[in-house]
Amino acid sequence: MKNVFATVLALALVAGVPTHLKAAPQGASVEPMTAKQVRTAEANAKTKADHFRLASYYRSKAQQGQAKLADAEVQLKNWSWMEGRSKVPNAYTSSKSLVDQYRAEVDKYSQLAAGHEKIAQSLAS
To answer: Three-state DSSP class for 83?
Structure first.
């Protein structure tokens, strides 16, 4: 019983460690980039590392958008009984708009990340 408790406690502690405290690959930037830093990095990206850093940023933005999308899809499902209602806006149409917005955001950031990864792979070390 003590071993099970210790294992569960250890897993809870490891899972609760904020992502910025977890180990990062060598050479990877741990600090999140600001919008201004991203614009500057986009304008000045020349090396493989620059493009991988931007790809990593866009991947994280896509993952954040994916989480928002999942929540919005649950909300849309909860309000689906209002789909045929004529009163607009209603909770269903608002939820549908959020789902569409988040889906477009995920697609945009995924494409940007893929583009930077492709550029980085094409560059010589």
So the answer is: coil
